[in-house]
């Protein structure tokens, strides 16, 4: 449905009809400030095809709110550990199955990282409980982990 403009008697506007009906566009600096990224990041994402300016005014890039939201989404995906190539795959997925496959692989990788970190935490806490001078030679918890790793290294 096309946008409509209701005219009321004695109503005066401060802009033209075109200005009133077009959403306000942000400069690259405003978008960078709102997304908390450097302007160079936005330019880089444009070169990578992740973003594009919605308009140009006097040769300067201008962006809509939807593009700002896309920029923040890209940052979130990177916070989740996705590489820009994977982010591009999510953004350009033709089907839900495509982007869900990328997300599922990242989720599995996160689960592996969490398991490794939890194991490391358990070992470090056990080391702090050792009564002897040095964990490399005198701690039974660390000694057991060393033995376990050595046993794994002898497997074919």
TrEMBL record:
InterPro entries: DNA-bd_dom_put_sf, MerR-type_HTH_dom, MerR_fam
Gene Ontology MF terms in the entry: DNA binding; DNA-binding transcription factor activity
Repressor found in the keyword field: yes
Pfam families attached to this UniProt entry: MerR_1
Protein name as it appears in the record: MerR family transcriptional regulator
Superkingdom to which the source organism belongs: Bacteria
HTH merR-type domain ranges (all copies): 25-93
Gene3D superfamilies per record: 1.10.1660.10
Signal peptide range: none
Keywords: DNA-binding, Repressor, Transcription, Transcription regulation
């Amino acid at each position: 449905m096309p946008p409509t403009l209701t005219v009321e008697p004695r109503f005066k506007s401060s802009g033209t009809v075109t200005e009133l009906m077009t959403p306000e566009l942000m400069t690259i600096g405003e978008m960078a400030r709102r997304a908390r990224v450097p302007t160079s990041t936005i330019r880089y994402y444009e070169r990578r095809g992740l973003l594009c300016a919605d308009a140009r005014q006097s040769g300067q890039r201008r962006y809509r709110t939807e593009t700002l939201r896309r920029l923040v989404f890209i940052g979130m995906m990177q916070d989740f550990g996705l590489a820009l190539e994977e982010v591009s795959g999510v953004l350009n997925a033709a089907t839900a199955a495509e982007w869900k496959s990328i997300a599922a692989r990242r989720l599995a990788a996160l689960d592996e990282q969490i398991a490794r970190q939890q194991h490391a935490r358990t070992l470090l806490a056990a080391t702090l409980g050792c009564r002897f001078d040095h964990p490399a030679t005198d701690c039974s918890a660390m000694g057991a982990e060393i033995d376990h790793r050595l046993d794994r290294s002898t497997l074919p």
